[in-house]
Amino acid sequence: MAQKDKLAVVKQHPQKSSSTVLQQKTSIPGLDEVLNGGFPNHILILLSGTSGTGKTVFSFQWLFEGVKQGENGVYISITEPLFTAVRNIESMEFYDRKIIEQEKIRLIDIKEGLGLNQGVVDPQSILRYVEQQIKENNAKRVVIDSITAVLYTINDKAKIRQFVFELKKILATLGCTTILTSEAPEVDKYSAYGVEEFVSDGIIILSNVVGENQILRNLRIIKMRGINFRTGTVIFDITSSGLQLYPKIPIDRSVATTEFKNRLSSGIKELDALCDGGNDGFPQGHVIMVAGNTGSGKTTFALHFLIEGLKKGESGIYVALEESSSQIRKTALAHGWDLKKYEKSGKLVFINPDLMDVNPDKLLYLIINTENKIGAIRVIVDSVSSLESATMNKIKVREFLIQFSGFMKTKGVTSLLTYLSEEAFGAESGQLLGSGSSSELRLSSIVDGIILLRYVERGQSVAKLLNILKMRGAAHSKNIWQFEVEKDGVKIGQVFKR
């Protein structure tokens, strides 16, 4: 498919910015995207945050990634004993004991080295000691954890200012890129003494927010001299691999098109015929929404579409928001579709986010990374209404869908979204998709196709009805059709007659 070759997101950033500033990759997942390449070389960065926000993990991850790039590092601790700092990161996948043993990362306890507990400390002795350690190790990456504790030992405002300026000069002369960690004493203040942030070339703020079910971590870059960087809050996790950032994905909408001539079968022959008067199916790159009541068959329609592609050797993604992936497998198996074999072959990947604290940027990042990895042709999101009822508000849901739709179109991916519409049972006021009237379908401007599934009472029974409300670029049927969900899937019958 020609559309699959088009560029969807900004390419991996070069090591030079538009102003020819040399940059070094941090290799912290997601951070180089935010920085448009990495840290500028030989700068001083203030990494600020309260206790437990991830400053030490960030620092060590950056140092270990530096060794992989041939840059030795020095870690200077004053806030806690070295054995405690090392113990806290030994379980991380980036940790390599040999690197420590070979002193490619030299660990220094400045309290022990200079006896900082013995009365007043001479700032010059600290500077000479730091300079000596960097030279001996030929270090290009330096972490001082924390600069707040170092300055506390000096305890003189004038000497503190002079010390910070001289420290920066020494580090720049030695060709080091340096991180100074700082305990943020209060909101909107980045350092204890108010000197560090003005001297620093870059400021990164880490913070925590208590969510419904977990701690939500945020990163903000306040400044980074010499380069263009993305502003705003970036969600991140601390995993066994270290920090993982989930930046917003910049999308090139100039290549976001739909290939109307290329069609993908819905997996239901009769539905394909209803889409454009023949056995055509959905236009490639379309975002199709299947909306209906509880139990109307939305998931079965989605599985038909997914299985059809898997049988043809196409890769697919199933974003399971309403039910667990194990339940989806059971539902599919009840219709005779074995999803596990496609998962084992790498053709199918399930994404099961935690809805309690779901974030649109993080969810989109997971979907896009998976799509880029397996080259998915078909994507299922089941269901969008679960996002609305979780911790996302309506605005965030719309933002997510706009980003999602734009990205999928740039990749030529055809998507099917399910949505719970409860008009027959009394929809809640203000729902994005409350009733069947087109004026109330607030998502209609985002999606390319809408298939409505409804119930209707007939005598002593309830019948299921289907109507293609919208299908861009296709002369679709305007009739209302009866259908049933049977053991082998959906069966579309005759036109409904009142």
Structural category: alpha/beta
**What strand order characterises the main sheet?**
5-4-6-7-3-8-9-10-11
- Assess the beta-strand content as a share of residues: 25-35%
Number of distinct helices: 16
Question: Briefly, what CATH class of the largest domain?
Answer: Alpha Beta
Largest sheet: 9 strands, mixed
Tell me the name of the CATH homologous superfamily of the largest domain.
P-loop containing nucleotide triphosphate hydrolases
First and last CA, distance: 44 Å
Q: What is the helix fraction of residues, given as a range?
A: 25-40%
Q: Sum up the overall morphology in one term.
A: elongated
The CATH architecture of the largest domain can be given as 3-Layer(aba) Sandwich
**What Rg, in angstroms, do the CA atoms define?**
28 Å
- What is the fold named in CATH at topology level of the largest domain? Rossmann fold
Poorly predicted regions are: 1-18, 424-441
DSSP, total strands: 22
Q: What's the domain count?
A: 2
Q: What average pLDDT do the residues reach?
A: 84
